[in-house]
UniProtKB/TrEMBL annotation:
Belongs to the V-ATPase G subunit family. It comes from Guyanagaster necrorhizus. GO terms for cellular component: vacuolar proton-transporting V-type ATPase, V1 domain. Subunit of the V1 complex of vacuolar(H+)-ATPase (V-ATPase), a multisubunit enzyme composed of a peripheral complex (V1) that hydrolyzes ATP and a membrane integral complex (V0) that translocates protons. V-ATPase is responsible for acidifying and maintaining the pH of intracellular compartments and in some cell types, is targeted to the plasma membrane, where it is responsible for acidifying the extracellular environment. This is V-type proton ATPase subunit G. It holds the Pfam family V-ATPase_G. Residues 12-54 form a coiled coil. V-ATPase is a heteromultimeric enzyme made up of two complexes: the ATP-hydrolytic V1 complex and the proton translocation V0 complex. The keyword Coiled coil applies.
Amino acid sequence: MAAQQSQGIQTLLEAEKEAAKIVQQARQYRVQKLKDARSEASKEIEAYKKAKEAEFKAFEASHAGTTSSAQASIDKETDIKLQSITASFNSNKDHVVKKLLDRVVLVKPELHRNLKKV
């Protein structure tokens, strides 16, 4: 009976060792699958990043001419407005100086409106 119990214990120990091997293999398999999934995801991310960067470069190249032409038109408008302001200044400066001198030189002495007669 002792031999039979010993043999039963031995069988259980072997079964436990085999179960531990199966669990260890399952863990290794899971770890390997996780590594594969991460590397695959990394490759997909890089491919997506390259595609988006190429798309951005194409967009930037197609709109680069638009920026320079817009800058040129804004510079042209600025020059036109500056010329208009300069012309307005030159045509009205004599009139403004005359008005200022008239106000300063021609003084009409009057009593202040807050001053009351006693």
